[in-house]
Amino acid sequence: MANHKSALKRIRRNEVARIRNKYQHKTTRNAIKKLKETEDKSAAEKLLVDVYSMIDKLAKKNVIHWNKAGNLKSKLTKHVNALA
Fold first, then answer.
1. Coil vs helix vs strand at 80
2. CB-count burial class (<10 Å; 0-12, 13-18, 19+) for 60
3. Which alpha helices (H) appear in the chain, and where do they start and end?
4. What is the pTM for the complete model shown?
5. How many domains does the chain contain in total?
6. Which residues span the domain enclosing 36?
7. Distance between CA 65 and CA 67 in Å, rounded?
């Protein structure tokens, strides 16, 4: 266990950040699932903009790797463009 006051504070802050990152990552994954299930192209295009933003925020905060973010965005764009 930590002995210094600053180390104890760091443990508390890390836990808060962990919970926040977990929530944001799960929310993004749910939005991606919702986008993949969407059959209407116009609705999917509107949703794609929001999902892009969520993915970029996760990559910026290093919750996911920036390459993974790019791959996700590429696959989702292909999916939306393939809708009739």
1. helix
2. exposed
3. 5-37, 41-60, 66-82
4. 0.87
5. 1
6. 5-82
7. 5
Nearest to 1 by CA among 13, 10, 19: 10
For the chain, report the end-to-end CA distance as a whole number of angstroms. Answer: 58
| Residue 77: C-alpha distances to residues 5, 37, 47, 49 (Å) | 48, 14, 11, 10
Domain CATH for 37? 1.20.58.110
* pLDDT of the residue at 55: 98
Over residues 3-55, the pLDDT tens digits come to 899 999 999 999 999 999 999 999 999 999 999 999 999 999 999 999 999 99
Give the pLDDT confidence score for residue 11 in this predicted structure.
Answer: 95
Taking alpha carbons only, the member of 47, 46, 66 closest to residue 56 is 66
